[in-house]
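Hey, resending since the last one bounced:
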Amino acid sequence: MKKLIPLLITLIVGIGIGWLVSGFGGSNGGHDHSKMASAEKAEIWTCSMHPAVKQPGPGKCPICAMDLIPLSKMGANAGARTVSLSENARKIARISTTEVVRKRPQVTVQLFGSLEHDQTRMKTLPARFPGRIERLFVDYDGARVQKGDHLAEIYSPDLLSAQSELLTAVKFGNTDGIEAARDKLELWGFSKARIQEIEQSKKTSDQLEIRSPISGVVTQKNVNEGDYVKTGDSMFSVADLTELWAVFHAYESDLPWLRFGQMATFTTEAMGEREFSGRISFIAPEVDPKTRTAEIRINLKNPNGILKPGMFIRGEVKAEVIGDGKVIDPAFAGKWISPMHPEIVKDEPGKCDICGMALVKAEDLGYAIAGAGDQDDPIVIPASAVLYTGKRSVVYVELPDQKTPHYRGRDVLIGPRAGDNYIILAGLNEGERVVTNGAFKLDSALQIQSDISMMNPADDPGLLFEKWNLPEIKPSANELFSSYLSIQKALVKSDLGAAKKAAGEFENRLKNLPTKENADWATLHAALSKSVTDANQTDSLEKFRAAFAPLTKNVGELVRRFEIKAYVMHCPMAFNNTGGTWLQQDAELVNPYFGDAMLYCGDVLEKLNIPETPDKKPEHKH
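The structure tokens again:
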């Protein structure tokens, strides 16, 4: 108490002096002060960084100690899902934006794996008859052998009887018997020269040398001297190491950028920075459920034997991508490729020089055709602009022509991630500006205000495609969708003529529609026109089906914008297992990408503008 008494006295004196100064100040000063106090009471002050802070007068933010500013300068009532900031608040929050552009993203896929034997260059030597290993010439794993080198010597009484059959047939001139005995000995491993020698010398032997069918390395020696073997027992395995497999494991997020025939480079620990290269010859059709990776294989020449199976390798594949996920590779422009051997590339159709299979067009393997225009390039934004909730993706768009910065949240449909960018499938237009730094701060402000935000979605999930109030266009939109359904049904029947006729009807209806009512409608109109024209210019059913996919994407936006009832169907096996989507008016799925080949392949992906009906509870009979 003795220590507190001096402090209390000092406080009381200070308050008294302040009251005196305020009481004896000039009349003008007192009048101005009361005006300021009245104005401050009429204004609510808040923090530009913490909008939840609201005070009746100026001061410091209790959270970050920043100076409070009038709420009016924060842009109150800027609109639903919209945040307005003063220039000073924008700088403090470090908000930065980037223009939405169309471009071909460059993707570099990092891969890890190991070198393995080429399974097509491995031979197993089985015992073709029962016997005993009399002698081993190769008695350890890893021994190098040349084609024709002896590996072991086997003894068998059956050898004598088989040779005796041949000599008996020769003695009596039994032509059929001679041919049968020769075939039997050849199957057992006798060379034609050895058989001819037996016929001329009339001498038989109960031992036979086992020789290597290829040059390579003995990877497995399964017998020892003195072992008895039965017919079919594996004695040796030999591998040709002049060609190897580089086997990588690609994450599923990288699979959209990988194509059969792409060039890949890799390095090994043993060779330092020395690069090796090869073309992708195999992409596994399934993802391993445990590792979430798919096997990628490269066929690799190894003439000097410097690369060894089991070596750890780091690989890299570079891809340039356009719309619809197609990869551009100038080396394959207008080319035909072997579906089994990507090193076989020709200018014209034909057959593979190695396996004899028919060559296929590069476009059929997911490559873009040469000369793709800018409109085929995807809309791309930096990955930092996207706030991803697990179910929804949100970006903040800077509103144009505003006195103070205004930012509005918008749901978007993202495609695969391409390096530091996301491909945007829907929700953004070229030329808009999105927030790339500070988006989370803007979203936090809306969360605090209980507005629509990343974690507080709207009741209507249709924010991705804002509904268009264009009554003069909507009836025609329904007619366009009807023409689209006619195209889909024609493809189900694999009828190219009917599909083109329906596409022509779609095109004619589209030409008669005005485009000045709405800028976004004009953009969609142009996209619809291009996609249906591209489909109509195809000359085969396969090409038309490929063009049907981008048409579906644009018709899908039409359906959402004008609230047309439709089912979204998806087949994961379409387009070499990359998947294909289409629209139907009823729930009974029929596949336009395969027709009768796989008529019912697919699932209902989404219901558009179709109310969910509650499941009926089962009736209990008493």
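The chain is about 25% helix and 25% strand.

Sorry for the duplicate.
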